[in-house]
Amino acid sequence: MQIDVLGTGWNDEYTSVLMLPSDQKRVDTLWMSEAGVVDAFFFVGPGPKDVVMQYTSVTGTPAMPQLFAIAYHQCRWNYRDEEDVYNVDAKFDEHDIPYDVLWLDIDHTDGRKYFTWDRLLFPNPEEMQKKLAAKGRHMVAIVDPHIKRDESYFIHKEASQKGYYVKDATGKDFDGWCWSGSSSYLDVLNPEIRSWWAEKFSYENYIGSTPSLYIWNDMNEPSVFNGPEVSMPRDALHQDDVEHRDLHNAYGYYIHMATSDGLVKRGDGKDRPFVLSRAFFPGSQRYGAIWTGDNSAEWDHLRVSVPMVLTLGLTGISFSGADVGGFFGNSDTELLVRWYQVGAYYPFFRAHAHQDTRRREPWLFGERNTQLMRESIHTRYMFLPYFYTLFREANMTGVPVVRPLWMEFPDDEQTFSNDEAFMVGNSLLVQGIYTEKAKHVSVYLPGDQSWYDIRTGTAYGGGVIHKLEASEDSVPAFQRAGTIVPRKDRFRRSSTQMENDPYTLVIALNSSQAAEGWLYVDDGKSFEFLQGAYIHRHFTYSDGKLKSSNLASTGVRSKKFASECIVERIILLGFSPGPKKALIEPVNEKVDIEPGPLLLRGGWSSSVLTIRKPNVRIADDWTIKIL
Ligand SMILES: *[C@@H]1O[C@H](CO)[C@@H](O)[C@H](O)[C@H]1NC(C)=O
Ligand SMILES: *[C@@H]1O[C@H](CO)[C@@H](O)[C@H](O)[C@H]1NC(C)=O
Q: Where is the Glycosyl hydrolase family 31 C-terminal domain (predicted)?
């Protein structure tokens, strides 16, 4: 490979990278930089996964989220008051829809002074959080980095006295307009200011917060409504007179870092943080989740959400998603339902809406649509064990949770420009539907092996574009032959309540009558997994035997994680002629293999076989022989 550096020392207005028209043999890019020295790293692969691993070895692998954070989030600008919160919470139960997190946007505060509560609307925030926590649910409150210039506001008083704000070019505190009106911005380039900010999240300082409250950093580009390009002037000054132009892109990263640090340090410091950020920079994956910003309730925004999330994954930022339903504008019902069907596979799965939109909680569109949205959310909850395993893979290697098809099939050129379908891990392929009243949907299934429809178990050939009838029930999704996917099929109110539930394993055989898969489990919240407190299994099927073996490192493991969870069902896809019995070892017990019917709720197929109640523990080594 030859790289020609054609010029350096650009001194243009913007940092930008242009992809220039290219012929077959070369791709030209033009890079311009606002300021400073460009450090260039080259990651040589050879495969796409190698590149991400190499990249995240420099910028960091993603943090391991808590389990609740990868379940479903319900957000709106704004849930008005405590009564509204209780109502929405109760409706989820009434309609048998699981959710894990209820979000509060800017208007829960007293005059948009973050870390405060509007006490008329939210007189008892602790009690509110505790009531939701009793059902295993969490809350998220927004804390933005613009600080209201109000002498009676403790954050402003301290920050201005200590000289913690970014200065304007004349050396005065920079004063810009944002949600809080006239605001100043903390100079988070400075580590002292970051630790001061982190302290603000302690339970003593953040009055009304409890251990089930987590944080959302919005507007951290930073947004300045009356600033150039709605941001901070380039000549604003940070510590040591560093101009804003030199660190603009890192501002959001630093506030995200400091907030995440604050959540780690509060209380007994045991729980993993959760912080959603809008702005990001290389390395932001170490501090939490990212969403794709303020989108609109339009079909094209649903479509583009997929390449956006895939691209973020390639930059190490695995934990991302787009606002389900679209932030601006009223989603028509069909679009909303389709959005849930695709969004259920985003790594970060949150519905959100602007205050000017009509209410759009999933039960407001008639029983049929409620059912469709409920099923999408249920599907996500079923696959939580698989998602969590993928989050751990990302945490260890950087390889993203959702992947472009070409990351799994780098030799298949037909995948290169396909960004309407995506892989969840190496095992599931999801094809979105992005048009109104679609009658058909074309799905390209890569490779030379079969794919099994996750609802019906029907097999489809690989290497072919299939023109399928578009179903109202779901977007097409397939399990790749040669894989084993762990699920939890019992429906609960929240992920937390699924903790002790038994597992289902879905085995899809390939043409060599083999398959493999993984399961990672830990306590879902603490850092003890870093000291070995986890279960990591490798499932393999070959020569008629399903084996579960230990993958957890045998090195120093000062902490242990125990689980009594069992496998309650094994679903077999691609077994023909159908075997009748299975032998479980080492207990030497014979169990029946029965036809179908349950695959996904409501799905049925004669090609699906089930081993009921093998009742092997996920923590143990075992073998199941198919007779
Ligand atoms: C995984 O995430 C944790 C934070 O949750 C982090 O401390 C750790 O470095 C990450 N990587 C690995 C390999 O554990
Ligand atoms: C079938 O799956 C197994 C396990 O994933 C794999 O090792 C094998 O190469 C696969 N065979 C084919 C033909 O793809």
A: 398-485
